[in-house]
Design goal:
The protein is of the alpha/beta class and about 250 residues long. It has one domain (about 5-245): NAD(P)-binding Rossmann-like Domain (Rossmann fold, 3-Layer(aba) Sandwich). It is built from eight helices and seven strands; from the N terminus they run E-H-E-H-E-H-E-H-E-H-E-H-H-H-E. The chain has helices at about 15-25, 35-50, 65-80, 105-130, 155-175, 195-200, 200-210, 220-230; strands at about 5, 30-35, 55-60, 85-90, 130-140, 180-185, 240-245. Strands 3-2-1-4-5-6-7 form a seven-stranded parallel sheet, with helices on both faces. Helix 1 packs across helix 8 (about 220-230). The longest helix is centred in the middle third of the chain and has 22 residues, at about 105-130. The model has no long low-confidence stretch (mean pLDDT about 95).
Length: about 250
């Protein structure tokens, strides 16, 4: 049976790369987007061009109150589009960058990061558990910044560290259903994330490239296919792990 993966934040960057890699591997995709409906529909079209099925649904992953209605909407969409009552894989990818030194971080910045990257991941997963198939997979996105420290990334890295702990607890509690849960921690990637600094600022790009054993920063397609592989049957025994995909950053 064809698998269905839900990828949050699938309209751009790592989410887009993941959705397309899943489709190339023969899977169908549901992707969420916050505001970029046109970009999300473009990804849907790319997936459909591969002969797979996809749909895009709006979701603010920082708004816990929206999760129960989203789960109901997703259930209906799965029935209408795929003829199924559930899905197989959840990729908690959606996020944003907001960076400041500890001395300068505002409560609003801190709360925004917590709401999207940690609280949102926790309660969205909770809301979707009734729809997630036994024997399924969950991948949570973290960051290479939980292992190596770089000034200005304190709040962002801290909430990603919380996600890594959450991943292990999810694996423990969902193991009885045969659901494997892992964390993927990318290094610096050329996307529009965090204002596109790694992609657009040559000095920032070089800084991280010089910290990386392979001598460059990453690209979205360095990450998406790896996530897709982690969802594949050959990775069924990988569970409760933090897997860094950084080209050897900060070693």
């Amino acid at each position: 049976m064809t698998t269905i993966a839900l990828v949050t934040g699938g309209s751009r960057g790592l989410g887009r790369s993941t959705a397309l890699a899943i489709a190339r591997g023969g899977g169908d995709v549901v992707l969420t987007y916050h505001s970029k409906a046109d970009a999300a529909q473009a990804v849907v079209a790319e997936v459909e061009a591969m002969g797979r099925t996809a749909l895009a649904l709006p979701l603010d992953t920082g708004d816990v109150a929206a999760f129960a209605p989203f789960a109901n909407r997703l259930r209906s969409a799965l029935r209408e589009t795929f003829g199924r009552d559930g899905f197989d894989h959840l990729v908690n990818n959606a996020g944003h960058g907001d960076y400041a030194l500890i001395a300068d971080t505002t409560e609003a910045q801190f709360d925004g990061l917590v709401n999207v990257h940690f609280k949102g991941v926790y309660f969205l997963t909770q809301a979707l558990l009734p729809l997630l198939a036994d024997g399924g997979r969950i991948v949570n996105l973290s960051s290479g910044l939980t292992r190596t420290c770089f000034p200005g990334y304190t709040a962002y890295a801290a909430v990603k560290g919380a996600v890594e702990v959450l991943t292990r607890y999810m694996a423990k509690e969902l193991g009885a259903r045969g659901i494997a849960v892992n964390t993927v921690a990318p290094g610096a990637i050329e996307t529009d994330f965090g204002g596109g600094a790694v992609r657009d600022d040559p000095d920032v790009n070089k800084l991280f490239a010089d910290m990386t054993a392979l001598g460059r920063v990453g690209l979205p397609d360095d990450i998406g296919p790896m996530i897709a592989n982690l969802l594949a049957p050959g990775s069924r025994w990988v569970n409760a792990q933090r897997i860094e995909v950084s080209g050897g950053q900060g070693i």
